[in-house]
Amino acid sequence: MSTVDTPFAAAYELELNVDLPAAGGGPVQFFYPGAREAGSSDLLARVTPFDRDPWLANFAAGGFPLTAVTTCPDPNLFCAVVRGAGYMVRADDAHVWSKVRAHPVQQVIPDLDHELVVVRGFHQDRGLWHWRLRMVGRLCSRRVKSLVTGGDGALDQRR
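Above: the chain's sequence. Below: its structure in token form.
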């Protein structure tokens, strides 16, 4: 995987599979959970916000097939899925990030009409595995609930 999907406008540039800089040189590096601070990571991306200095994002993998990187409705946010492990990261502040609470992530679907990124995967609850959809977008949670449930709070069984 060597491209970034850009369904939404971004206030940054991403370059994937870059080389590690020489020791003590290059942009600041941030290591997301499990990425080794010495050596390489499973995905190394150069993040260049339009109004700030570039930095390197080192991501750990989840051991599953899907790797995908996509822009999000928020122009300062991107989603990186590295072999099933999902991360949401702010390009303008590398300290602001979260793991996607679905593992393994199996699909990332941009929805331009609703300004959403839908992430499909699994989660574990009380020892049982369940399907999970996560949505990231500019819409308020009430609107997202309406999109998923059909508006009345009950899951639409046809989906």
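The chain has one domain: 12-149.
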